[in-house]
Amino acid sequence: MLPLTEFPGFQLVCEKSNFSHEKTKHQEQIKKHYFNFRVQLFIPECGRLPKEMSHLLSQLPPYYLVRGLPLTALLQEDFIERFVRRGSVCALSYDTRIDQDDSFALLPPGSLLLSLQKDTYETLGLQGKPSVYAGRKPLHYVVNIDLTSPTFKSGKKNYERVIWALGENLSLKFNVLVAGKGSRGMDHSLAEFLAPFGGHPVLPEFSTQTVLPQSCPTLHSNQLAGQDMVGCGAIELFDWLGAVTAGISCSNPPDGYPSSLGCPEPNENIQQGFLLNLTGLITPETVLELLQQVRNFFSEPKFAPWAALTVHGFADVPVAWERGEHGFHKGGENLYTFIVFVDGSYWLLRATGTQDACL
Amino acid sequence: MSTDEKTTASYEKITYRNAKKHFYLRVRLELQDTRVLNAVEMHCLVTKALKELHGDTGAALLCDLIHFDSPSRTGILRVCCSGLVRVWSALTMLSTFRGQPCAVRILQVSPFLLSLSGDSRSWTPPEPTASECQN
Amino acid sequence: MVRLKNRYVLCVVRGGDLALRALSPSAVHKTLSHTLQAQHGVYGQARCLIGMTVFYVNMKTGVVIVRVRKDSLSLLSSALPFVSNVGYPPNRVPCHLQTLHVGGSIRSCQKFLIEYHRKTLQSQLAACVTNEERQRVRAAITSTCFSIGPDKDVDADLDLGSD
User: Fold this and answer.
1) pLDDT exceeding 70 applies to what percent of chain A?
2) What do the Gene Ontology cellular component annotations say (chain A) (predicted)?
3) In the structure, what pLDDT confidence band is assigned to residue A182 with cuts at 50, 70 and 90?
4) What pLDDT does residue C146 have?
C-alpha cells in the first residue's frame, strides 16, 4: 500500500445506559475529564434557553487567568494545604503547545504533571519518564510530582529539590488558567491567593443561537448502532451534530456541486433548534450541574425527543481522561457527548485522537 | 423481574476504531487580492491544487467543501480517509491563484466534525476590562 | 544492508510500423514521464522516475522493458494504459501499450519473452501466405530472442514452422 493513503488513527467509544441504572458511570466519566474548554448544548424543537438553565449560567463560578506565574507559587506549602489537599483546584498552562513547548497541569487529585521537551528536561534535574508516544528516541518527557504525598513538605529533601529545580535552576513561568471548585468562600480565597501574581477572575463566556429549520436524524434510544429505515446510529449522529454546531446546513441536494453532505437517513424535519456555547476553563462540577439541568428539563413533557450536551477538552493537555497520557499528533481532540433521552436513558459518545487513552 | 432484565440489558458499549469514512480539514486561504471569493471558486482551487500535485487520480478524489465563509476565507473540507494525505500535501504545495501568490493554512484536522467547533488552540482568554483591573 | 528491489515491466507497443519506427529508449522514457505527470501529478512523476529506466527497446517487435523501483510499480502500471502516443513532437505517433509481464529480474523477463514468442509464432506463421514472408518472420523472431540456451533450440522451433 502506498503511504499516501494512510491516515492517523482515532477512536469513538459509544455507550448506552440509563441514569437510573445502578451501575451507571456518567458521573465518573465527567469527573475524570478534568480540563473542559467548551460546553455545547443542543436541544431540537426548543426556541430559547430554559429558565433554570439561565439561572445556572448567571451564577457560574469564575476561573482565574494569571500571566507569567512562577511554578513555585503552586508549590508553596500554604497553597498545598489550603487548596491542593482538599482536591479543589486545577490549573493548566495555556498558549503552550504540548508537542512543541513545555507545559504543565495541576490535576485535582493533587499531582503536578510537567510535560517537557528534551532540553528542558535535561537541565531541570528532576526524575521523569519519556512520553509513551515518543518512540525510541524520546524528545518529550513527563515529570509527575505528587503534591499530596506526606513527605512533600518544607525541610524534606524531595521538596527542597523540586523547589530548587523549578525555582532557582530554571525558574519556569507559565501563563496559567486556574479553576477552583467548592463554596464561594473558597473562590474568594483563591482569588486572594492569586492576586499578588496578577491573577484576575474571568467569567466563562456564553452565547446562544437559534438553529434554522432543517432535517434532523431520527433516534431510538435502544438502538445505539442504528438500524436501516428505523433510526440513526451514534456515529452518524455525531457527525450531524458537528455540522449543526458549525452552522452547516445538511439539506444540500446530494449532487450539490461544492458539497455532497447530506443528513443521515432516516430523518425528520425540525422547526427550530437551540444551541448554547459556553467557553472557558470549565470544571467537571459545572458540567455535572448542566447535565442535571438537562435531565430536569425533560421532567415536564416537551416537544424535544432528546438533547445533546457536548464537552470539548483542551487539545494541549498532558492528561485528557484520568491518568492516560495525552498527545497532540494531528488534532489532539478529546471530547464527549451525552445524548439525553426523554425516558431517562442516555448515550455517551467519547471521541479521541491518535495519542490518547480512552477506556 | 421484567424491569430488572430491562435495566441490565440496557447497557451496551460499542468501540469504533478508525471506522469513519471521512476526515475534516479547516482551512484558510491567504491571498493579497481583496476580491470576494465564493465557495465554487474555492472548490475549484482545491481541485486545481490536487491536479497539480497528484494528477488526474488526485483530482478524482472525493473532496467536498462543506462550508465556506467568504469574508474570512475559511472553509471546512471533507475528504475520504485515504485521501487525507494527498489533499493536505496538495494544499500545502499550492502557491498561486490566478497568477497571484497565495497560501492555504491548515488550521485543524480531525476525523470528527464536532471537534472542529471547539478549537482550543485558536482561543485566547478574554483580557481583563479596565474596571476589573482597578478592583 | 538494505537491498533496493526493482521490478521489470515488459510491454509491447501496438500501433503499426510508424509507431515502431519512432521507438527509442529516450522517446519511450519521455512518453512515460508525460503520462505519469498527467495521471499522478508532479509528486507521482518524481517518485516514479527515481530509478526508472527504459533499458530495452526492440524496434522490430515493439517489445519494451522498463525497470522501476518496487514501491512505485503501482504508479507506473496504472499509468501505462493511458499512454496514447510515442515519439518527439514533429512525428508523434498514436499507439498504445500492452503490458505482458511484470518480473522481479531481467532473467525472468527474458524467459517469459522466449515463451511468448514461441506461443505467438504459430499464429504468425499461419497468417503468412508466401515463403518469403515466413523467412521475414523467422528473421524477426531470431533477432528478438536472447540466446540463453543452445541456439539450436530456437532454430529447431523455427524449422518446424518453416516446413
Assistant:
1) 96
2) multimeric ribonuclease P complex; ribonuclease MRP complex
3) low
4) 61
Q: Tell me, yes or no, whether C6 and C23 share the same domain.
A: yes
Indicate if C40 and C94 belong to the same structural domain.
Answer: yes
Domain B22-109 has CATH 3.90.930.50: no
Q: Is the pLDDT assigned to residue A82 strictly greater than 70?
A: yes
DSSP class of residue C22 equals: T
Q: Are residues A11 and A96 in the same domain?
A: no
Give percent above pLDDT 90 in chain A: 36
Rounded CA separation C140/B14 (Å): 67
What averages of pLDDT result for each successive group of 10 residues across chain B (135 residues)?
Answer: 49 88 93 88 93 93 90 93 94 92 94 90 77 47
A74 by DSSP, 3-state: which? helix
Cβ–Cβ under 8 Å, residues A103 and A172? no
Whether the bond between A266 and the residue before it is cis, its omega within 30 degrees of 0, is yes
> Do A208 and A268 fall within a single domain?
yes
Q: Is the pLDDT of residue A26 over 60?
A: yes
Domain boundaries, chain B: 22-109
The C-alpha cell that represents A172 in the structure block: 519556569
**Residue B21, CA atoms < 13 Å, CB-side half-sphere:** 6
**Judging by DSSP bridges, how do beta strands B12-17 and C96-103 pair with one another?**
unpaired
Please report residues of B whose CB lies closer than 8 A to that of C74. none
Q: Is there a contact between A280 and B125 if contact means CB atoms under 8 Å apart?
A: yes
CA Rg value for chain B: 21
Residue C81 φ/ψ, nearest 5 degrees: -65, -15
- Choice between A183 and A269, residue whose per-residue pLDDT is larger: A269
Q: Give me the sign of the Cα torsion angle A249, A254, A257, A260.
A: positive
Contact B114 A257 (CB under 8 A): no
Write out pLDDT tens, residues A312-348.
999 999 988 887 888 888 888 899 999 999 988 999 9
Instruction: Please tell me the pTM assigned to this model.
Output: 0.87
Q: What single string gives the DSSP state of each residue in A85-141? A: TTT-EEEEE-S--TTTS-EEEEETTTEEEEEEEHHHHHHH----EE-TTS-SS--EE
Mutate to test the interface with B, among A241, A279, A333, A339 (most CBs of B within 10 A): A333
Instruction: Name all chains with 3 or more CB-CB pairs below 8 Å to chain A.
Output: B
Of A354, A270, A336, nearest to A305 by C-alpha is A270
Indicate whether A197 belongs to any domain: yes
